[in-house]
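Example record used in the benchmark description.
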Amino acid sequence: MRVVIAEDNVLLSSGLELLLNSRGFEVVAITADAPGFLAAVEAHRPDVTIVDVRLPPTFRDEGIRAAVQARRDHPGLPVLVLSQYVEQEYAGRLLADARGGIGYLLKDRVSRVGEFTEALRRVAGGGTAMDPEVIAQLLAARGDPVDALTAREREVLALMAEGHDNTTIAARLVVTDNAVHKHIGNVFLKLGLSLGDSGHRRVRAVLAHLRHHGNTAPNPTSSPYP
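Model output (structure tokens):
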């Protein structure tokens, strides 16, 4: 699996390269700025990219703007954003792309090697990988249809937002696949996602979760709900 990294911190980028190369990935390019990242994507057409939110010259939002641009130039390009904070405007724009292949993790997640590489593979496969802390902060809103969901449905939606498929959700919650399918159907119904949106309903449901104010994902292993 070929990877392009955009990260100006040499220690972090070198560490990522060593980590990923030892885990079956191939780092084909490391760049320190947005123009270099866009050029590397064009040249290598990677399977997945890793982008720091803050890149030179201003160290504000160059990285995530480059990620949005790369997705525009190469629709569906898998992008995993690393950040120490949540840049709401561009994060929202990136996540609004319904084609999947999106991740947004806080940098301390990199130290959890298994979780990080699992998230990267999930993004490369067209899924989502959202840090629970990012979910808790993004796009706060009021009068949210998520308020109508039951506690169990919110658990299912939270796990969807982390990028898990139905089988994994069932295992996490210790329920059947049919139960998960039923809960997801209820989520779609309550969020007003019609059958005609079948290609994008899962992503749109996740976006609704991200917009929900002040809700973090409950711990599925300790749930009292059947």
